[in-house]
Design brief:
This protein is mostly helical and 168 residues long. The protein has helices spanning 7-38, 42-46, 60-67, 69-100, 110-122, 127-134, 147-151, 160-165. The chain is built from eight helices and no strands. The N and C termini lie far apart (51 Å).
């Protein structure tokens, strides 16, 4: 026999769906607007006529982007960071989460570690100090850099380790 659903629960479900659909639209509509603007003509954009559908459809901006090698280099860096970063973050998270899931009798220092992790999570310095300390903010050294300085320039993949260890 099917369970009866109360009237209050149905009202809750309707309100819940309305709120969730509204939140989804708040997230999706700006992306659709940005895509429509990127596919619209310059005069339609300047006249502020573009909403969620392209006007004077063109792909000239995409042609310019795909002709530059910097785009593909940046895209490859993103792929590398995912390929290297996901396993690193998973390993560190598993190595930290498993012992912390045990009781205080099994892992005696559990409460101390949990307190330290909570403090670091709630009271962190933010992202700007992280970027400054890790060297991610790079300055142009000019064309007169030595060959040694060029060889010692950091690889983008070495930025992952400070990020992995930041919360721990």
């Amino acid at each position: 026999m099917p369970k009866r659903i109360s009237k209050g629960y149905r009202v809750f479900q309707v309100i819940n769906y309305i709120i969730l659909i509204g939140l989804a639209l708040i997230c999706i509509l700006p992306i659709l607007n940005l895509l429509a603007i990127s596919l619209s003509g310059k005069y339609a954009i300047d006249a502020n006529k573009v909403t969620f559908w392209p006007i004077d459809f063109n792909v000239d901006a995409y042609k310019v982007i795909f002709q530059t090698k910097e785009f593909f280099r940046a895209f490859w860096i993103s792929i590398e960071r995912v390929i290297l970063g996901v396993p690193m973050f998973l390993v560190v998270t598993i190595l930290m989460a498993y012992p912390l899931s045990k009781s205080g009798r099994v892992f005696r220092g559990r409460n101390v570690y949990m307190t330290i992790i909570a403090i670091v999570c709630f009271i962190s310095g933010g992202q700007i100090p992280f970027y400054q300390e890790s060297g991610l903010v790079r300055y142009d050294l000019g064309a007169d850099r030595s060959a040694r300085a060029q060889r010692l320039e950091r690889h983008h993949a070495d930025e992952l380790l400070p990020a992995v260890a930041q919360g721990y």
